[in-house]
Amino acid sequence: MLAVCGCAREPSRPLTVAFGDAPVTLDPHTSNRNVAWSVLSSFYDPLVSLSPEMRPQPALAVSWEHNDATHWRFRLRPGVKFCNGDALTADDVVASFERARHLPASAVSQYLVGVRSITSDGESTVVIETDGDQADLLNRLSFILVVRAADAGPGPITAPIGTASYRFAGVRKDGSVLATAWAGWRGRPDCRDVVFEFCRTGAEAAGQLLAGKVDVCHLIPDDWIPEVARAAGVRLEQQPRLAVQLLGVDANEAQGEARRALADPRVRRALLLALDRGSWVARLFRGNGAVASQYVHPAVFGYDPALSPSPYDPKAARRLLAEAGFADGFTVTLRYDAASAAVADAIASDLEKVGVRVELRPGARRAALVYFAWACSTGDASDFFESLIRGAANPALADEPTGALLDAAGREADPAKRLALLQRAQRRTLEFLPILPLTIRWGTKGLSPRVDVVIRYDEREDVAAFRWRR
Fold first, then answer.
1. CA angle, residues 340, 345, 348, in degrees to nearest 5
2. Looking at the chain, which terminus has fewer C-beta neighbours within 10 angstroms, N or C?
3. What does the pLDDT profile of the chain (470 residues) look like in tens digits?
4. Does the domain made of 11-42+164-240+444-470 have the CATH classification 2.130.10.10?
5. Are 293 and 240 in contact, with CB atoms under 8 Å apart?
6. What are 330's strand-pairing partners?
């Protein structure tokens, strides 16, 4: 009896993680939803993973060499097995990459843009050839999860067999996913049995936490935070979020004088100066955020700590508008989704004060101004630039000096030099403001008294790293 009482006992009830989101697909190559990565990463591993701070680190590849500008060699970690006992080989990696690249339903093929080929060199080495320099390749590889070659066909994967810390244990009728730990290459996780539960809303997930039915509420809605904070035993942890809220400007979608106005960089700067973003953070976000100084989150490679946010200065905004020939303002349309209605109202109110009249178009397909958020999910600023600046169809975004800086950053292998190039590209983009940086928001995670978690910048719930409190 003394021996039994002296040993720490694992809780009999499974660890339950609740999301205020729809159930996920279990096919690692056909989903790119944030919530899905929490589940999929429990079953599957990539060659290279991202640390909680968004830096590349070894996973199935124990090491790699960048032999020349277009060739990478990855040495696989020895002794890795899939959870069914099959040994991991280079052929499994090659088959997984080919499936991710060519599957018609693939949601991750964009992470392999620029990859010319992937081949095996023996059972434990993989060679990736690229079209040119791909300085952010390691970051992008973290989104390509490895399946068995036997599972890499065109059909959907519904029962995961991977190398990560958990075995798939089934799906309940409500869509909840069950997982059981096993002693894979990382060792057996502390939390043996896990339930990933999907609620209709974040409020429902928070209610489950308050009722003692779940251990982790992925994100507590802002208006629930005071109630959860008062609950006995429940803990709140700040959850960083990589997304930056932005206001896209497309003069081609404007009508009449608004088209000419939005094409002028002075007008775009006036719009930014007219927005009282600090008050949004206080009023609308309940203090859970900050005014953005640039296009990427501080955790992203390419962030420039020397930059400060543009101030709220409606007088300067009116002066710039007059200087550009729009002292009487103009009328412009604004597109946003239903969840952002409060921010859209604030944008319209702030711009009205400097003479810019805003027609709100919730859910519209096209508008001159677009409120949206962008997260550099790879942890690298090139994600933003390649997707929204270089890859944009709007000619106003095609700035040759910025393109030259991005080309140089793509070729640069030295991290310090590459960081400086990305920072210069960001400063250049902030000069002519094709997109306005607005705010950064963070979330709040709710926890039961039973568990300690690891907070990640990409918001994934890495249950293999969680620990029971004993």
1. 125
2. N
3. 333 333 445 667 899 999 999 999 999 999 999 899 999 999 999 999 999 999 999 999 999 999 888 999 999 999 999 999 999 999 999 999 999 999 999 999 999 999 999 999 999 999 999 998 888 999 999 999 999 999 999 999 999 999 999 999 999 999 999 999 999 999 999 999 999 999 999 999 999 999 999 999 999 998 899 999 999 989 999 999 999 999 999 999 998 899 999 999 999 999 999 999 999 999 999 899 999 999 999 999 999 999 999 999 999 999 999 999 999 999 999 999 988 999 999 999 999 999 999 999 998 889 999 999 999 999 999 999 988 988 554 555 567 888 899 999 988 889 999 999 999 999 999 999 999 999 999 999 999 999 999 999 999 999 999 999 98
4. no
5. no
6. 356
Q: Which fold has domain 45-149?
A: Dipeptide-binding Protein; domain 1 (3.90.76)
- Report the C-alpha gap between 240 and 453 in whole angstroms: 14
Q: Which helix (H) or strand (E) segment is 283 a member of?
A: helix 277-283
Domain ranges for the chain, please list them.
11-42+164-240+444-470, 45-149, 244-441
- Cβ atoms of 82 and 148 closer than 8 Å: yes
- Is the CB of residue 452 less than 8 Å from the CB of residue 466? yes
Strands 244-249 vs 369-374: parallel, antiparallel or unpaired: antiparallel
Give how far the C-alpha of residue 432 lies from the chain's centroid of Cα atoms, to the nearest Å.
Answer: 26
* Closest residue by Cα to residue 310 from 272, 283, 356, 280: 272
Q: Tokens for 288, please give them.
A: 């859970």
DSSP for residue 156: P
| Beta pairing class for 235-239 and 443-447 | antiparallel
Instruction: Tell me which amino acid residue 323 is.
Output: E
> Coil, strand, or helix at residue 196?
strand
> CB-based contacts of 220: which residues, under 8 Å, 6+ apart?
202, 206, 209, 228, 236, 443, 444, 445, 446
Instruction: Give the Cα separation of 429 and 223 in Å (integer).
Output: 35
The domain defined by 244-441 carries CATH number 3.10.105.10? yes
